[in-house]
Prior knowledge:
This protein is α/β, with parallel strands linked by helices. Helices cover 20% and strands 32% of the residues. The chain contains five helices and eleven strands. It is globular.
Amino acid sequence: GTAEDQATAFTPHKIIANIYYVGTRTLSSFLVVTPQGNILINSTYERNVATIEKSVNQLGFKFSDIKILLISHAHYDHCAGRSAIKDATGAQYMVMAGDAEVVESGGQADFQYGGSAEAQYPPAKVDRVLHDRDEVTLGGTTLVAHLTPGHTRGNTTWTLKAQDGGKTYDVVIVGSL
């Protein structure tokens, strides 16, 4: 998408059960709401953090209730805003092992874009390094991290169960192809 599409909020909305879309037109961010706080998947660009915060607020939730920050992969367009989100919320940052070094280096350790100044971003400490099939649980909701390398070494696809309308649904948040 265009730079405008990457920065323009897509109408925040409920996807199913406790899962909401809070991203832009072309950069996905998902909010998983629980009674003990919320989980955000993908912080996108640093310049989009205010857009994500506005979307969270428009849905009636508090940005400060984000307790865990996850990513699909360690490219700047999916994780560069994480330092600002960690600073604003105190969220625990959890990243798949293959991408942890990349985010802690601010993108310099990326095998594809490490030499590109455009692909660099503020480094952020990873609070928990994840491995294939690790679980991230908050407030009765459990997300399972599935290592799906290729796009990056630690590209992660997330799965979880969602209860909606008396039924249980299997939800998949796909890491980049």
